[in-house]
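Quarterly update from the structural biology core.
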Amino acid sequence: MAFRLTLRLLGSKSEYNKLVDRVLRVDHAGELGADRIYAGQLAVLGKTPVGPVIKKMWEQEKEHLETFEKLIPDHRARPTALLPLWTVAGYALGAGTALLGKEAAMACTVAVEEVIGHHYNNQLRQLVAHGNEDENIRNSDEHNKLLSTIKRFRDDELEHLDTGLEHNATEAPLYDSLKQVIQGGCKIAIWLSERI
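Predicted structure, tokenized:
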């Protein structure tokens, strides 16, 4: 904490602090979107046999969102201005794919979680690289807690991907096209949330 505060008191943010701000901003936005996707899916499929599966994934996403909602002010990071858009878009995506059936909802899960797994891995590589360059960063509790959090959440997201595949995601109508469209939207949302 003292390391970060010292850098903040000196004025301009270091490249590392800029990276952490970007990471927290985009991950908070992504977890809000995921929370809304699962809310939309559960609204449509909650009373079906797949309802408990969706609810379990949603509970994990709620924990992720809650964690980033605490980390944003702790690190004095700025959340994205696009949160209202991601709230509506996430719910619409979740409910819309669920209306197409259980398989389409699971295809949505697979598409989103695959992108997020890659995204978290890229963030981990960037954070580790900064730690390798600077012993103060590498040895800071704050840095190591952030790495641990992102690793754990990445693993949860990849578990959701596997769950989607186990529940017949690939049997969704036009699976490949649906997956590509959703992944394209996710990549745009990531790019925008890092910057706005």
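The chain is about 85% helix and 0% strand.
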